[in-house]
Specification:
Blueprint (H helix, E strand, L loop, with lengths): L1 E6 L4 H11 L5 E8 L3 H11 L3 E4 L5 H7 L6 E4 L1 H7 L7 E4 L7 H9 L3 E4 L3 H10 L10 E3 L2 H10 L7 E8 L9 H5 L3 H4 L9 H9 L1 H14 L6 E5 L5 E7 L4 E5 L5 H9 L30 H12 L3 H17 L8 H11 L8 H17 L3
Parallel strand pairs: 1-2, 1-5, 2-3, 3-4, 5-6, 6-7, 8-9
Antiparallel strand pairs: 8-10, 10-11
Bound molecules: magnesium ion.
Length: 382
């Protein structure tokens, strides 16, 4: 029986994680859950899963939550610091980190430092802190496991293989809702249209990142740290059907792929049971039907965010932190209808040019760079 702590239990990955746990009551027990401000759903989850601890990070929601679950024995905490403390609790075996954005970074560091297995949906942790977290990665994947369909696919393709015989990791991308848009059409993208993803059901931030292909850029950086291969060996391609979740080509010319109907419960469950598999009721692919799978290169003229991500990892140091922070701010400003869709990449580009931090890389200095970038990107007039 594994004791789980789910950071971000009311989000898309969080609720699907609880579904996996609900279906495997003999394997997993919920030790703790957390939400930012959705106290209504958190209260429901507390009543169903009866965790030892629950955290609401937005302190203004504490009273409402406490009233909603009065009489339940779960210990209720509030504030972001509670998350960082809780990941170290001796009862916790696995931390599922499905926090959104930079907020997930410090809990990831804390969990890895205290020797927990981390099932990581928060790719930003690796984007900003990959260099610092390197010591927990590499040869064995037992401590940090990706909850990202592409990285889970690569992990599955690499089972039993030697990293020295890898020629290329091929990360697939759906291309998002604007794959076929002209530059003119991209000028007129609305918040509503950007929030509709063709194949995956996800949270707002990652849905926008998917539409700009920033998500794919972040995923290349994530793969770079996770699998410790040179950047030239990592390639991203568009595969609009999203059936092949990623591939690995080996030095003898063989390519292995992992595929299936898109369902995040597959990579979630695999991260929890790796290297074992458990049964999962998910729609199976019908091989008797006529299907075509297609592939195309990424057009970085129409989707410059992808190239900005590549520039940041080539430059290294703090640049991926600047990339991530300015992207988070730009996406938020777009969702608030403060800036047009095509200004997202402009804010990121300007931030990458402006922010300059020469201090040695540390958790503290990454936090500072993140904050400095946010301050700059928030007020930047485009
Ligand atoms: Mg992904």
């Amino acid at each position: 029986m594994q004791n789980l702590l789910i950071l971000g239990s009311t989000g898309s990955i969080g609720t699907q994680s609880l579904e996996v746990i609900r279906n495997n009551p003999d394997e997993f027990r919920v030790f703790g859950i957390s939400a930012q401000n959705n106290w209504q759903l958190l209260a429901k989850q507390i009543k169903e899963f009866k965790p030892d601890v629950a955290v609401i990070t937005d302190e203004t929601c504490l009273v409402a939550l406490e009233e909603a679950v009065s009489g339940v024995s779960t210990k209720i905490l509030s504030g972001a610091q509670s998350l960082t403390d809780l990941v170290k609790a001796p009862e916790v075996d696995i931390v599922i980190n499905s926090l959104v954005g930079f907020a997930g970074f410090i809990p990831t560091v804390s969990a890895l430092e205290s020797g927990k297995r981390v099932a990581l949906a928060n790719k930003e942790s690796l984007v900003v802190g990959g260099e610092l977290l390197k010591k927990y990665l590499g040869d064995n994947y037992h401590q940090l496991l990706p909850i990202d369909s592409e990285h889970s696919a690569i992990l599955q393709c690499l089972l039993g293989e030697d990293l020295n015989s890898v020629e290329k990791l091929i990360i697939t991308a759906s291309g998002g809702p604007f794959r076929t848009f002209t530059s003119e059409q991209l000028n007129n993208v609305t918040v509503e249209s950007a929030l509709k993803h063709p194949n995956w059901d996800m949270g707002a931030k990652i849905t926008i990142d998917s539409s700009t292909l920033m998500n794919k850029g972040l995923e290349v950086i994530e793969a770079y740290w996770l699998f410790q291969l040179p950047l030239e060996k990592i390639e991203a391609i568009i595969h609009p059907q999203s059936i092949i979740h990623s591939m690995v080509t080996f030095t003898d010319g063989s390519t292995k792929a992992q595929l299936g109907i898109p369902d995040m419960k597959v990579p979630i469950q695999y991260a929890l049971t790796y290297p074992k598999r458990l049964k999962l009721s998910t729609p199976q692919f019908d091989w008797t039907n006529n299907y075509s799978w297609t592939f195309e290169p990424i057009d970085t003229n129409r989707f410059p965010c992808f190239e900005l991500a590549m520039d940041s990892i080539r430059g290294g140091g703090y640049l991926p932190t600047v990339l991530n922070a300015s992207n988070e701010v730009a996406v938020r400003r777009f969702l608030n209808k403060e800036i047009p869709y095509i200004s997202i990449h402009k804010i990121i580009r300007k931030s990458l040019e402006f922010i300059n931090n020469d201090a040695g890389l540390s958790v503290e200095s990454i936090k500072e760079t993140d904050q400095e970038t946010r301050n700059y990107a928030k007020t930047l007039k485009i």
